[in-house]
Write a structure and sequence with these properties.
Elements: H1 28-46, E1 56-57, E2 63-64, H2 66-82, E3 88-90, H3 98-101, E4 106-114, H4 116-121, E5 127-134, E6 137-145, E7 150-155, E8 160-163, E9 168-171, E10 175-176, E11 184-186, H5 194-200, E12 207-209, H6 215-221, E13 227-230, H7 236-248, E14 252-255, H8 269-274, E15 291-294, E16 296-297
Parallel strand pairs: 3-4, 10-16, 11-12
Antiparallel strand pairs: 1-2, 4-5, 5-6, 6-7, 7-8, 8-9, 13-15, 14-15
Helix pairs in contact: 1-2, 6-7
Amino acid sequence: PKMGTTFSKVDGQPDYTVELQFSSSIPIQSVVAAAEAAGQSILQIYKSEASKWDVQLKSDNSPLTRADSAANQIICDELTRLTPHIPIISEENAIKPYEVRQNYQYHWLVDPLDGTKEFLKRNGEFTVNIALVTNGIPVLGVVHVPCQAKTYWAVKGKGAWLQTSQTQTQFQAAEFGLDDPGLRIVASSSHLSKETEEFVSLFDSPEFVQVGSSLKMIMVAEGLAHMYPRLAPTCEWDTAAADIIVREAGGVVLQAGVCNSEGKALEDWRKALIAEQPMVYNKKNMLNPFFVVFGRRRGAPPEAEANSNGNR
């Protein structure tokens, strides 16, 4: 007799699916620790001779140093250990195609060294940014400032916090009216566009404050400034962590019109801003639109929930 079994071919293969559900707890202090460890590695390189920084130019002509790569490695290793099932999008990693990314329920969004130009100028105004995003909205954000040994963080619904080695304090954005005289407006020392000048001209004797990297958004969150118009190009990893910190401090980050990578406006920034649309993340194009960060505006409409489909 023949040994073994013969299988008859069945018409139409059975199509079973396996339903998966994950539950995961992420201690905010573990994310803070990852940002601070990255900050330590950046400072070691920052304090070394500039000839050892291995400065290269990326394809978009932005600078990359050994500090960016070292910080990225530390953060990615730590986040993978903390949450092996959550993908990481980092400025310094190859970005997966949108066909893959659009199915992310959660993802980390990382800029291991925001303000490389500030690093190269040795002015200390650079940060480490880590955000957790779900359905286009950041729900956790950590912005660490290595040269000040300060870390700003926020978790959705839990407020915005400043942490040093000694203290942890909650903070809120400043309240103001748009027609108040002498409002403090943050503008980038290296990006003063025609649109920014138009925006500034709308206010009564505003005061100009200049600072680098995502610290500009943090200044509004902390109440040290009232507004920050960014009518120039940025990417999602530049803003997501500070965005949730602004939101939790009572402010908003509103879209002000799509632009291209050269910073040319593709729609009227005024019309876009009036629509009161919060920023959306994990878009097909990871370039941000123009945006304006406001503190707590008197009489502002309640914050619109991001329409995560309409703004992709």
